[in-house]
């Protein structure tokens, strides 16, 4: 009998609501113990099969002896057989058994679907360096715990089981093999398995055609999030029916960063009782530019990676409501956001909005209008509102799918997020900042901001319009204060100076081409550069740019992370400027599906040079061939010269784009603003003026005639 055949003899717990609920058994306690024993038996059997002449009765006696020993070890326990093992047990938390008095029993649930297998298995590697439990007797002092909560006494410390929840069914070999692999990690001697009492596996039993989690049709498909919603409901029912007091939800993209993170989470549970849900709000940057437009329920919502108190009646009411709504349009809303809508509607009287404006309700064939449930939710608030049952934890920060840097989450025990990148290393990658300046003095505010903040740039190039700029600064500086410093930096003998402790070279270049050609005309000497204009300044919290980690030993280079917007998103389709930008990009690479903003691109200088030669050959030295097509091209919203999107298209046409850059979908991973606008009104009016001046005379005359004609008709 092979090991796989032996494993197939043991069932796992099936999803509640299936037809075979009565026959379902949890792969815990006896099953866990037997499975561990079978693993050992399989190993011996495999060895015995290789030994010819081994008699049948000898094999039978060996198996009987092994099973007897396994039973003596206890049901579901890990027993330490020597003093060294006892020390390991002490150092890495208690392997708690069933005989634990009145201690509460918690379940740490790790849900996964077929698409999450690789991510889930990889996530357990982090548990080797950041163990779930620490020796809270010696390694953690009282101050460590009180930052997050209240420390449990040894005789009241909760029992915690590790529950691995698979969205599919036991017939799925990939899912079953994943469970077996995780149990091997759990059973490893001296491993993190000692932090838990039992290994429990559970299958939600969702049919593959219903196990959907697809962001692409998020605006149109009401079933886009059906998989996670259904799995959460079934996880909750399984955990509650098994008598667990709390469910700690930890998806595969939750990353532990410190030893003892589970102990710290438990201490927060103790401090925050009573509660229904304890978790984290969104901490990323994706909403920075439109936070005031975001619904209150979304701003306040606790991410699904949270601690759920299964004994609290409010949570039971919320899950009951989710179960009632599972076959309605409400199920198009992720369960954690929907729970926030319920509480917001009841506590603040704000009706729930349907977040997907383009979606059609299958039941009516019309745009979605949610049924009002204010009275029901208001009753909940009146009953439980004084407890503040929805609470925010400190042990976890939620970045969702947003990209982030290590320094943003330094010291946080648990981080929920997919895009962990590294900061650029200025010793490896030099980056220039190119500033497009329209007026004589507007770049001053940006340079002053650089002088007072950390930034990632090793050099600054100011592309100016007016040669009188230097004289204006000199006349107003009176050789004192900040203006004098700027003058000495920009126009001193060595054209260099100290900016915030860094020797930053600043050069002034009198442009000879139109300002929209600065991307190509800026004389950059470093490996990379970014471009902005003098109506912006570097964001104060931007000291580094995001790069991939790379692997020097394997010859894999570190590369910049570039945010983009999918070209087919409504956000692009509804704006003429975006459509025209994509159109111009597709003249270079017909399959272009990304829009990259000029101020978010980290240009690689050598390929920029090649791109500009290509672009000028295609459209003329200053884009004269491009400008011949009068119409939408002459809108201030669209590019009149080379753009980051066209540069990206050029790289894709050569097949080198993704070897140079890591592209990150802004609609899913978000992005940080490297530059913030500080002179918005002046920029707009000045840009329109320069746009008008840059138009050929015949175009300006035609536009005037069109305007006069429209006014005459009016």
Structural features, described:
By secondary structure, the protein is an alpha/beta fold. It has four domains: 3-77, no CATH class; 85-324 and 388-418, Spore Coat Polysaccharide Biosynthesis Protein SpsA, Chain A (Alpha-Beta Complex); 428-545, no CATH class; 547-671, no CATH class. The chain has 26 helices and 23 strands. A seven-stranded mixed β-sheet has the order 3-2-1-4-7-6-8, with helices on both faces. It has a six-stranded mixed β-sheet with strand order 14-15-13-12-16-21. Helix 14 (443-451) links the parallel strand 12 and strand 13. The protein is globular and about 85 Å long. It starts with a helix and ends with a helix. The relative contact order is 0.07. Mean pLDDT is 76; it is low at 1-99, 136-142, 472-485 and 487-502. Residues 1-21 are annotated as: Disordered.
């Amino acid at each position: 009998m092979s090991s796989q055949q032996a494993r197939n003899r043991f069932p796992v717990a099936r999803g509640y609501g299936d037809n075979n609920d009565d026959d379902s058994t949890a792969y815990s306690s006896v099953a866990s113990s037997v499975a561990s024993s079978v693993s050992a038996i399989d190993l011996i059997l495999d060895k015995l099969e290789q030994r010819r002449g081994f008699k049948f009765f000898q094999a039978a006696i060996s198996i009987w002896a092994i099973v007897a020993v396994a039973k003596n070890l206890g049901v579901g326990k890990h027993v330490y057989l020597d003093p060294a093992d006892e020390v390991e047990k002490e150092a890495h938390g208690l392997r708690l058994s069933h005989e634990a008095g009145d201690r509460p029993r918690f379940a740490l649930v790790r849900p996964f679907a077929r698409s999450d297998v690789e991510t889930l298995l990889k996530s357990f590697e982090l548990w080797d360096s950041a163990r779930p439990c620490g020796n809270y007797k010696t390694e953690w002092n009282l101050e460590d715990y009180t930052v997050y909560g209240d420390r449990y006494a040894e005789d009241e410390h909760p029992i915690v089981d590790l529950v691995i929840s698979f969205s599919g069914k036991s017939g799925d070999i990939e899912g079953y093999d994943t469970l077996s692999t995780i149990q091997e990690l759990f059973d490893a001697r001296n491993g993190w398995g000692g932090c838990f009492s039992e290994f429990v596996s559970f299958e939600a039993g969702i049919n593959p055609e219903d196990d959907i989690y697809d962001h692409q049709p998020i605006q149109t498909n009401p079933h886009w999030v059906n998989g996670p919603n259904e799995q959460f409901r079934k996880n909750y029912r399984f955990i509650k029916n098994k008598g667990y007091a709390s469910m700690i939800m930890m998806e595969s993209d939750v990353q532990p960063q410190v030893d003892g993170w589970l102990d710290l989470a438990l201490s927060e549970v103790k401090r925050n009782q009573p509660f229904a849900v304890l978790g984290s709000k969104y901490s990323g940057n994706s909403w920075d530019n439109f936070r005031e437009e975001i619904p209150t329920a979304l701003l306040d919502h606790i991410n699904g990676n949270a601690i759920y108190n299964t004994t609290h009646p409010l949570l039971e009411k919320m899950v009951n409501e989710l179960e009632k709504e599972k076959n309605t349009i409400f199920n198009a809303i992720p369960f954690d956001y929907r729970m926030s809508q319920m509480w917001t509607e009841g506590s603040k009287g704000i009706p729930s909005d349907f977040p997907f404006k383009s979606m059609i309700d299958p039941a009516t064939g019309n745009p979605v209008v949610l049924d009002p449930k204010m009275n029901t939710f208001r009753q909940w608030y009146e009953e439980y509102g004084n407890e503040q049952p929805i609470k925010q934890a400190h042990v976890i920060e939620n970045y969702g799918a947003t990209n982030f840097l290590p320094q943003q989450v330094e010291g946080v025990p648990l981080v929920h997020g997919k895009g962990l990148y590294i900061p650029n290393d200025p010793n490896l990658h030099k980056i220039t900042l190119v500033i497009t300046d329209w007026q004589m003095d507007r770049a001053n505010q940006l340079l002053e901001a650089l002088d007072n903040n950390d930034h990632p740039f090793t050099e600054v190039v100011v592309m100016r319009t007016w040669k009188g700029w230097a004289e204006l600064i000199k006349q107003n500086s009176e050789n004192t204060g900040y203006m004098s410093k700027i003058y000495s930096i920009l126009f001193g003998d060595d054209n260099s100076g100290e900016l915030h402790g860094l020797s930053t070279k600043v050069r002034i270049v009198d442009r000879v081409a139109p300002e929209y050609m600065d991307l190509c005309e800026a004389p950059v000497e470093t490996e990379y550069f970014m471009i902005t204009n003098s109506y912006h300044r570097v964001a104060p919290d931007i000291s580094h740019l995001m790069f991939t980690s790379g692997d020097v030993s394997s010859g894999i280079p570190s590369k910049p992370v570039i945010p983009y917007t999918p070209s087919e998103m409504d956000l692009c389709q509804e704006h003429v400027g975006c459509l025209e930008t994509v159109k111009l990009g597709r003249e270079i690479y017909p399959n272009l599906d990304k829009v990259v903003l000029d101020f978010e691109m980290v240009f690689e200088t050598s390929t920029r040079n090649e791109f500009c030669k290509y672009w000028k050959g295609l459209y003329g030295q200053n884009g004269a061939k491009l400008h011949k097509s009068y119409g939408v091209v002459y809108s201030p919203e669209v590019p009149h010269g080379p753009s980051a999107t066209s540069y990206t298209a050029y790289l894709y046409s050569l097949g080198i784009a993704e070897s140079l850059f890591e592209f990150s979908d802004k609609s899913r991973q978000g992005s940080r603003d490297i530059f913030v606008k500080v002179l918005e009104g002046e920029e707009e009016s000045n840009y329109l003026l320069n746009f008008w001046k840059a138009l050929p005379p015949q175009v300006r005359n035609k536009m005037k005639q069109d305007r006069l004609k429209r006014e005459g008709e009016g």
